[in-house]
Amino acid sequence: MASSAVTAIEFGRAAPGISVRDIQAAHDFYSRVLGFQKVFENGNPVGFMVMKKDGAEIHLSQKPDHKASTVNVMHMLVSDVAALYAVCEAQGVRIIKGLADKDYGQRTFVFADPDGNRIDIGER
């Protein structure tokens, strides 16, 4: 059980850090396909970037030898999962798990970004 000092602390936004081989290609994917906008970048050449859309935030870090995980690196809730699924299909995004209603009360699918990072999308 957490200490009372920690229990009293309110936690805020959490943003996943996602490693990518080519940060500019990742920027193109997340902006063109998912509508995220770059709000911060760091380095020369750029090695770190913050992308935002509505309440969602992603921190991209360039790692040229990045190897994709076989587990999801991010779960994101959206207001219309079927519409986003259709966008992903139309853009040729690799779908890992198709659109499905889950017994835990969400409709979900999983896709992979160009670096193979698995993103789990859900709607309550």
From TrEMBL:
<dbReference type="Pfam" id="PF00903">
    <property type="entry name" value="Glyoxalase"/>
</dbReference>
<feature type="domain" description="VOC">
    <location>
        <begin position="10"/>
        <end position="124"/>
    </location>
</feature>
<dbReference type="InterPro" id="IPR037523">
    <property type="entry name" value="VOC_core"/>
</dbReference>
<dbReference type="InterPro" id="IPR029068">
    <property type="entry name" value="Glyas_Bleomycin-R_OHBP_Dase"/>
</dbReference>
<protein>
    <submittedName>
        <fullName>VOC family protein</fullName>
    </submittedName>
</protein>
<dbReference type="InterPro" id="IPR004360">
    <property type="entry name" value="Glyas_Fos-R_dOase_dom"/>
</dbReference>
<keyword id="KW-0479">Metal-binding</keyword>
<dbReference type="InterPro" id="IPR051785">
    <property type="entry name" value="MMCE/EMCE_epimerase"/>
</dbReference>
